[in-house]
Design goal:
- By secondary structure, the protein is mainly α.
- The chain has one domain.
- It contains eight helices and four strands, in the order H-H-H-H-H-H-H-H-E-E-E-E.
- It has a two-stranded antiparallel ribbon. Strands 2-3 form a two-stranded antiparallel ribbon.
- Strand 2 and strand 3 form a beta hairpin.
- It starts with a helix and ends with a strand.
- The C terminus is likely disordered.
Length: 166
């Protein structure tokens, strides 16, 4: 498992579409330690926050696809393709109909990321940690298989030049 700080930063990106601020990180790290490392409890607590509700719960979504597309865009910086819509829209519809956790689906979507989407998400997490003066270790960041073109430099998960994701 990754470090608690990395995992909490990841939850901020997955659930609030922003990096953690110092006070929030300190609060949730304390909750993590008090709970014996219960990230699921933290995710569900964040889901109940006014900020999460304003972002995902306070809207009358016309379709589950609209909600799913918003989450996808927030996570990966672009709209979903047809395979992503096919994979996720029904799950979001089920959550809306059954009043189950949207946060769990956001986390599942992020955890299923591959290729360029995974690189983008990892970079957001690493950048958020850097804003807090923290650094991700090699085992924190999800591995990505990348075939590099000539003269490409990999710094953390920063791509200095376009890479071909395989």
């Amino acid at each position: 498992m990754s470090s608690p700080i990395y995992e909490i930063e990841k939850l901020y990106i997955e659930l609030l579409n922003r990096p953690a601020e110092s006070a929030g990180m300190a609060f949730w790290l304390n909750e993590y330690n008090k709970s014996g490392g219960n990230l699921s409890g933290i995710a569900h607590a964040i889901e109940q926050s006014a900020e999460f509700q304003n972002l995902y719960g306070g809207h009358e979504w016309t379709t589950a696809t609209g909600l799913m597309a918003q989450v996808y865009t927030n996570l990966f910086g672009h709209g979903p393709d047809i395979p992503a819509i096919n994979a996720w829209a029904g799950k979001y519809m089920g959550a809306l109909v059954d009043h189950t956790s949207i946060a769990d689906l956001n986390i599942q979507m992020a955890d299923a990321a591959t290729g360029a989407d995974l690189v983008y998400l990892n970079q957001r997490i690493v950048d958020g940690l850097a804003q807090l003066g923290q650094h991700a270790t090699a085992h924190d960041v999800a591995p990505v298989e990348v075939q590099f073109a000539d003269n490409v430099t990999l710094v953390g998960v920063n791509f200095v030049q376009e890479a071909v994701i395989i």
